[in-house]
Structure formats: C-alpha cells, structure tokens
Design a protein that fits this description.
About 20% of the residues lie in helices and about 40% in strands. It is built from two helices and five strands. About 15% of the residues are buried.
C-alpha cells in the first residue's frame, strides 16, 4: 500500500509540472542525449524506449545525430549546480535526419 501511494504521488508531481516542447539534436547509444537547438549548451539525458526504437530505424550510421521535436518535462538529478538534467518524454512530435541549416548553433552544416 505504501509503494502504491508513492507511485500515485510521483505521478501527480510529474503531471503538475510545466510541459515543454524541445527541438534539438538527439543521439542514442543505450542512453539517449539531446542537445537543444534553442538553448545553448543545454544537454538533456533521455531514457525513452519508443524514441530509442525510432532512432534505430532512422539512423543510417552509428552515433548519427537526428533532429527531434519532443514534448515532456525536465528533472534534475543530483546537485542543482552540477547535477544531470533529464527529459521525461511524453510525446514524440518529430524525428528525422538533420536538414541543411538546421540547429546551426549546435551542428556543423550537413553537406548535400
């Protein structure tokens, strides 16, 4: 009963957090990583099996960056000064190869 209460309270806390939409470059090698196109030097760790599965079907090379748009909530593990930032994915809006000129702050131009 105690663990059920914990699960319900955890679910309520996640549900009450502000949802955000993130667009960026994603790579998966067991643990997924997302670099935001909009916020410089923002690295989010992503553990989502559906996103990882889509990545495996679309990526044509190992460690290939793909463009994604995701909806979810963030959480920080560890210290607020040096902890890791995670994105809990609630919806995959888009996942595809990076197009030329996309996410220029983060990625070098993609040759055609």
């Amino acid at each position: 009963m105690r663990s059920l209460c914990f699960v319900v309270l955890s679910g309520l806390l996640v549900a009450c957090r502000q949802q955000l939409e993130v667009r960026g470059l994603y790579v998966s090698d067991g643990q997924g990583a997302l670099v935001s196109c909009d916020e410089r030097q923002t690295l989010l760790l992503v553990s989502d099996s559906a996103l990882a599965e889509n990545y495996r079907h679309i990526a044509t090379q190992p460690h290939q960056w793909l463009f994604v748009r995701l909806r979810g909530v963030t959480e920080t593990h560890g210290s607020i000064y040096g902890g890791s930032h995670h994105l809990l994915v609630q919806q995959i809006l888009e996942i595809r190869p990076v197009r030329q000129g996309e996410c220029q702050r983060v990625a070098a131009p993609v040759p055609l």
